[in-house]
Amino acid sequence: MAYFRSHVLVSIDPECVKKGAYDLMDALQDELVKQGLVDEVQVLETSRIGDPETEGPDLMVYPESVHYSNISIEDVPFLVEEHFLKGRVAGQYIHEAKESLDEELSAPKAKEVRIVLKNIGEIDPLNIEEYIARDGYLALGKVLTEMSPEETIQEVLDSGLRGRGGAGFPTGLKWRFIRNAEGDQKFMICNADEGDPGAFANRRVLEGDPHAVVEGMIIGAFASGSHQGYIYCRAEYPIAVRTMKTAIEQARSFGLLGEDIMGTGFSFDLEVRMGAGAFVCGEETALMASIEGKRGEPRPRPPFPAQKGLWASPSNINNVETYANIPQIILKGAEWFASFGYKKSTGTKTFSMAGDVKNTGLIEVPFGITLREIIYDVGGGIKEDKKFKAVQTGGPMGGCLPESFLDLPMDYEALGQAGSILGSGGLVVMDEDTCMVDIARFFMEFTQDESCGKCTPCRVGTRRILEILTSICEGNGKPEDIDTLRHLCDQINENSLCGLGKGAPNPVKSTLEHFLDEYEAHIYEKRCPAKVCKSLIRFEIIDGECTGCTLCARNCPVEAISGERRKTHVIDPDICIKCGICEQLCPYDAIEIK
Amino acid sequence: MTVEVKEGQDIQKVVQLLIEHHGHEKSELIPILQEINSKFGYISDDAITEISERMNIPSSHIYSVATFYRMLSTERHGQHVIQFCESAPCHVAGGRMVWERLQKELGLKKGETSEDEKWTLLTTSCLGVCGVGPVMVIDNDIYGNVTPEQVPDILSHYS
Fold first, then answer.
1. Number of inter-chain CB pairs under 8 A, A vs B
2. What's the helix, strand, coil split of chain A in %, to 5?
């Protein structure tokens, strides 16, 4: 085999090709011949390296890992001479590393462990070969040629992997139910209906590492004896839908999906189904109804999907993240996986951090990490160094936890005991300027809107809670409201049909428990301590701070501000609609909210 | 894979093509409705009748499905559809102020279409781009980190 001391990888991204990447390759080759280096330096194609829009055509030189960008054919003779003949890096062409463009996923922080996210941003998701190059489909090969379905199930059971959609049911056990269920046709379903506001981990996995999900599903199908699978992805994620479809086509053309996979006689195929905008379809029975072409309404369980699921056949439903963990578990072993985590929650969990935290975005941390470590060490603390007030875990059906819970080790059980849930891993951080009654009302608005209407406790109960919370926020709260809310929360939780209704009261229940003083301030003193609820605040101009610049008066949409130039202005509270424009505009911070 | 629709093609023809492409299975109903919705902007009574006859599904069932899902509409929309994300992360990041400004600028409330049929103002569930909230989508353009002051400027880009 020929030996080269250097390899030049030219990005053959469509955008770079448009900008002449192939001509650049030819020019490089010609120049290497000219300078007598053609036996020492090899020119190769690679996929996208940098941002082709602004940096293409670009190339990477190994083993030095030097990234040159915006290279034109005219630059080639000098570049070859400098770098390959004289052995000096041509500084003027070097790619300037920019701040990460990815606002959602930055380089891993100290306390992170990346298993599910390991390939995200590292490989080209539209090219199966890049996945294969990073040990992709090796686990599938191992399972199909060296392991029995029962051994596969045992490995997953031993790893301790539990459902990452939030319920935390042991994945191996679910697969065993399907394997043992009666029926000729069994379905594997991937729940990619990531509807929780604030959660986007699944989207990034689907968009960034689609084959990990496909491989996990094939392994699951082999273990549980299924030959047909569906990925139910929400329509709000058009890129994820497209990426998954491409991944499935590529896997099929590589003989990794369809008939006789890898020549082992095992057959399994996959199809993507798109949601149409219904939050409740993330609930497994509603999801299956939607695949069948019906309204996505949940039904009572039992029978569980493992007995009677899609088209009344035994069906296994796992979340995107659960499947994405599977290839790693098979490759590196159950013991390796179980070495991460805490008590009965092994492995890692992705969290989507949002709200008033400095570093928003996606993280992956081992179970057992505390909320404080997540918010302060990984998240960088609260924006503008304000005071932490609460964190809501697990999406709209999760509870709001105050500061006293920050040292809680995160796992399925601990969060449940604290009155919240792990859910799909949403984390909304709230600072001191957040009104907890308003937040509870806000979440109730969401669940009330998304309630499918099938069962009464959820349909009527959430509406009733919303009405009471709205009246409290508007300053019309009555002392008995607190007891009524508590009663309603219990009733809805106990009597609703599905997880949406059962979880809906959590934000109200948890804020009533941890932030009762705020409810009381609204009800008894008609005061909003965080100065958020409009009916309970008024805007005033501070005498002495106002310079009479007239900026506020000119921009007030209802002409509620009056005053002479260079003299203190006044806001008429009867006209003011509390839009806050004056406060945002005032260059002297002379407007105060009371 | 979708079915090409030519300009001015009537709904009967489109439904026929869609069913030929997707098949008659009841499970194909939602994909077919999605395509009609994206091509015509909404699902008309005529479309429901046509699907009902061709797929042998009661029109009451089709109507119940079409009205259940948020991304399917049985009402005609304006020329530009604004979808504002009403989810918690956007709300916490200042979304409420943007939402109020948006309603004021357009003189519309949630779900309304302007009289000149230029705008329809809707809310959407989480789009999963919470890192750049508040977020809104106009037609197929997505706007992140929106402030109330930017609203008039953003709207002025649409004629």
1. 122
2. 45, 15, 40
Among all chains, which residue has been given the structure tokens 């092994």? A346
Beta bridge partners of A6: A41
Kindly tell me if the per-residue pLDDT of A563 is higher than 70: yes
Please count the CA atoms within 13 angstroms of the CA of A157 that sit on its side-chain side: 13
Mean pLDDT of chain A: 92
Q: What pLDDT score was predicted for residue A101?
A: 57
- Angle value at C-alpha A516, between A515 and A519, nearest 5 degrees: 105
On whether the A128-337 domain is CATH 3.40.50.11540, my answer is yes
Q: Cβ of A294 under 8 Å from any chain B Cβ? A: yes
Are A430 and B70 within 8 A, CB to CB?
no
The answer to whether the Cβ–Cβ distance between B125 and A290 falls below 8 Å is no
User: Which residues of chain A does B64 touch, with a Cβ-Cβ cutoff of 8 Å?
Assistant: 295
Cβ distance A198 to B89 less than 8 Å, yes or no, reads yes
What does the longest C-alpha to C-alpha distance in chain B come to?
52
Q: Which residue of A has its CA nearest to B149?
A: A581
Chain B CB contacts of A203 below 8 Å:
128
CATH no. of A6-93: 3.40.30.10
What pLDDT score does B2 carry? 53
Cβ of A120 under 8 Å from any chain B Cβ? no
Would the ipTM clear 0.95, i.e. be above it? Answer: no
Structural domains for chain B: 11-68 (no CATH), 80-155 (3.40.30.10)
pLDDT of residue A360: 86
Contact at CB, B131 and A354, closer than 8 angstroms: yes
10 Å Cβ neighbour count for A407?
10
Chain B residues with a Cβ under 8 Å from any Cβ in chain A: 25-31, 33-34, 61, 64-65, 68-72, 86-93, 97, 100-101, 104, 124-133, 148-149
Q: pLDDT tier at B6 (50, 70, 90 boundaries)? A: low
CB–CB contact B27 A291 (8 Å): yes
How do the residues of chain B divide into helix, strand and coil, expressed in percent and rounded to 5?
50, 10, 40
pLDDT surpasses 70 at A77: yes
How far is the C-alpha of A215 from the C-alpha of A347, rounded, in Å?
19
Going by CATH, does the domain composed of A342-431 fall within 3.10.20.600?
yes
At residue B8 the predicted structure's pLDDT band, cuts being 50, 70 and 90, is: low
Strand A426-431 relative to strand A400-402: parallel, antiparallel, unpaired?
unpaired
Contact call for residues A76 and A27 (beta carbons, < 8 A) = yes
CATH class of A436-524: mainly alpha
Distance from CA of A291 to the nearest CA of B (A): 6
CA distance B92 to chain A (A): 6
Hey, what are A345's tokens? 């929650």
Determine the Cα–Cα distance for residues B18 and B23; give it in Å rounded to an integer: 8
CB A514 within 8 A of CB A390: yes
What CATH number does the domain located at A538-593 have?
3.30.70.20
Angle between helices A320-332 and A210-224 (to 10 degrees): 80
Please tell me the distance in Å from B36's CA to the nearest CA on chain A: 13
- Asked if the domains A6-93 and A436-524 are classified in one and the same CATH topology, the answer is no
